[in-house]
Amino acid sequence: MRRRDVMNRQTKMPEYKLASRMFHPEPTVVRVGNHEIGNGSATVIAGPCSVESREQIIQVAAQLKEFGAHMLRGGAFKPRTSPYAFQGLGETGLQYLAEASELTGLPIVSEIMDPSDVPVASEYIQVIQIGARNMQNYPLLKAVGRLTKPILLKRGLTATIDEWLLAAEYILHEGNANVILCERAIRTFNNSRTRNTLDLSAIPVIKDLSHLPIIIDPSHGTGVARYVPSMSLASLAAGADGLILEVHPTPDQAVSDGAQSLTPSEFNLLMRQVHHYHAATRSFLLEVGAHG
């Protein structure tokens, strides 16, 4: 056995045993409707940061569908740093998302923040997102763990890989095996050009330690729309199972995160690159895996 294999091999079961590859050697594939995450394809989830109106979400959902997105994201419950910022439309926003989903066939990915949101969210959302600020909201993790719906678990702003996997363990321990990890960048000393520091090294580390699929959020990861395409392609080159991207019809008028949102035309161009790039990098990664 090569020295690097010996060094990387886990010698004992970690605390996050259910999330560990030692417990579950084969990669987990999470099914959302007719789509699978973690089966070797590149899943693309896209949509605005916030659902602002019925017209907005229906318009952008139709464009995303046309350009090849697999799922529709949009925030109805918004965790905001300032109490004066837009907090989301709540259940009305979920209703608009549901209408857009019905018209396009795109499953909904949306965030909730409190265990009390679970019943109403379950009526509308196909994939429930746990945001970075709630990664260690243990009552919420337990509540969604009692569902069968897929859960998209974002990494906390200052969370280590082990802390992230232990958060996933809370969900798995309650019986829900449909967990998708999402790297959305961490807070570091860098505050000059990007919003956060996108930790692409988390991709191979997660692939080594865990069987759970991992997608990347380059929108929050950079906070700058023009950096999103390159970080999207870099994520796929590192072996990510997909991307979650913010797309807004008019980013300069967005009520939240306009600076990091792609326009639909920019998203269309990126999707063409994603198809070509993923096919090339996937074959390379498989070859490296076979001979590495």
Automatic annotation (TrEMBL):
Keyword list (alphabetical) reads: Transferase
User: Would the keyword Translocase turn up in this protein's UniProt record?
Assistant: no
Which Enzyme Commission numbers does its entry carry?
2.5.1.54
Q: InterPro entries, from UniProt?
A: Aldolase_TIM, Class-I_DAHP_synthase, DAHP1/KDSA, DAHP_syn_2
**Pfam families in UniProt:** DAHP_synth_1 (PF00793)
Q: What class of enzyme is it?
A: transferase
Could you give a single Gene Ontology term from the biological process aspect?
A: aromatic amino acid family biosynthetic process
What Gene Ontology molecular function terms does this protein carry?
Answer: 3-deoxy-7-phosphoheptulonate synthase activity; aldehyde-lyase activity
Where does the DAHP synthetase I/KDSA domain lie? 35-274
Q: Which NCBIfam families match?
A: DAHP_synth_Bsub, PRK08673.1, PRK12595.1
The protein's name is 3-deoxy-7-phosphoheptulonate synthase
Q: What is the lineage of its organism?
A: Bacteria, Bacillati, Bacillota, Bacilli, Bacillales
Protein's gene: aroF
